[in-house]
Specification:
The protein is of the alpha/beta class. It has two domains: about 1-60, no CATH class; about 70-340, EAL domain (TIM Barrel), CATH 3.20.20. About 45% of the residues lie in helices and about 20% in strands. The longest helix is centred in the N-terminal third of the chain and has 21 residues, at about 60-80. The structure holds ligand C2E and magnesium ion (2 copies).
């Protein structure tokens, strides 16, 4: 597309992309107003499928939009009604199986639908801007919880929308202040999609956070562009290897070569590594052998409610003081939404 060609604006190369929605007349609509609405829905769809593309209107887009509006309305209500919950998944040191910290994961306790996982609402929250108040709540709740437990760090996921918000740094500062949590115990997890569009802007924000003493992790590494220049120019302390690679370990697969290379690369740059989605003892053995630093996955425990954290910590400590670095899962009650599934 001609539009996608970069152009020169006072010496800077500027990239523009366009999304296109198409309505066909008279098949889709018989009047101008309706035609525009159909084209608009198709445009919305094109944007949500990654931008820089086009979509033709289809009647199903109407019901999709309706569903999204319903979720949005429900989510606003849920925020008011305090239906959001924060659960915490343990992370362990790979060599000793000692507890190394927790990742905060948001859930929605829906009065009819039960416990809704982030996959069912984060998207809508991001598109509507509701992720800003939700993200603030998550950050505050996570830091408050971590300030109450002994020493271990807490990881919090940040949406690209939050990272682009001018309020972020002020919010982080205020939350650290109010909770009294040492900044070095807070790790923020960031996905690559935030970095793609504006690398310089991203660098600025990340450096400001580093200046506060916070740690930064690149989440789901290997699934997006995984540009090595991100690792060179951005101040990440940790890479989280996406669980799709971990799931394919075993049997001399390509995944083994990839994971090995990521760990070597990270360590060469002085960056720590965490493998996500570790579910069995073979994966554990391999990841230990190749020097992965931290492991997270159902093998060590699912996300638990804040009330179950003390028990998780106790079990983990007892296990280690009993001299066991066996890959024994930390005995914690399963996430109810996942139980049996
Ligand atoms: P993530 O940050 O990569 O979090 C890890 C996800 O993998 C979690 O799913 C976790 O429950 C799941 N997981 C952990 N161990 C295993 C395992 O052994 N096997 C399998 N199959 N899965 C495992 P969850 O809680 O559904 O969260 C999904 C994603 O939603 C997160 O991926 C994160 O990107 C996003 N998310 C969660 N909480 C928040 C939040 O507070 N704010 C934002 N912006 N995003 C969030
Ligand atoms: Mg994460
Ligand atoms: Mg991840």
């Amino acid at each position: 597309m001609a539009i996608a060609e970069p152009f020169d604006l006072e010496g800077q190369a500027v990239h523009v992309n366009a999304s296109i929605g198409v309505a066909v007349l008279p098949a889709d609509a018989d009047e101008a107003d309706l035609a525009m609405r159909c084209a608009d829905l198709a445009l919305y769809q094109a944007k949500s499928e990654g931008r820089g593309t086009f979509r033709f209107y289809a009647p199903a887009m109407n019901s999709e939009l309706q569903r999204r509006r319903d979720t949005e309305r429900e989510l606003r209500r849920a925020l008011e009604a305090q239906e959001l919950e924060l659960h915490f998944q343990p992370k362990c040191r790979a060599d000793t199986a000692e507890l190394a910290g927790f990742e905060a994961l948001v859930r929605w306790r829906h009065p009819e639908r039960g416990l809704v996982m982030p996959g069912g609402f984060i998207n809508v929250a991001e598109r509507t801007g509701l992720i800003l108040p939700i993200g603030e709540w998550v950050l505050e709740e996570a830091c408050m919880a971590a300030a109450r437990w002994p020493g271990y760090p807490v990881s919090v996921n940040l949406s690209p929308v939050q990272l682009r918000s001018p309020r972020l740094i002020t919010t982080v500062r205020r939350v650290l202040d109010r909770s009294g949590l040492e900044p070095s115990r807070l790790e923020l997890e960031i996905t690559e999609s935030f970095l793609v569009h504006d690398l310089e802007g991203a660098r600025g924000v990340l450096l400001e956070m580093k200046a506060l003493g916070i740690r930064l992790a690149m989440d789901d590494f290997g699934t997006g562009y995984s540009s090595l220049s991100y690792l060179q120019s951005l101040p990440f302390d940790r890479i989280k290897i996406d669980r799709s690679f971990v799931a394919r370990l075993g049997g001399a697969t390509k995944a083994e070569a990839i994971v090995r290379a990521i760990i070597t690369l990270a360590h060469g740059l002085g960056i720590a590594t965490t493998a996500e989605g570790v579910e069995d003892a073979d994966q554990l053995r391999f990841l230990r052998e190749i020097g992965c630093d931290e492991l997270q996955g159902y093998l060590f425990g699912r996300a638990v409610e804040a009330g179950a954290i003390d028990a998780t910590i106790n079990t983990a400590q007892e296990r280690v003081s009993a001299g066991s670095s066996r890959p024994v899962p930390v005995e914690v009650p399963a996430d109810p939404a996942l139980a049996g599934g």
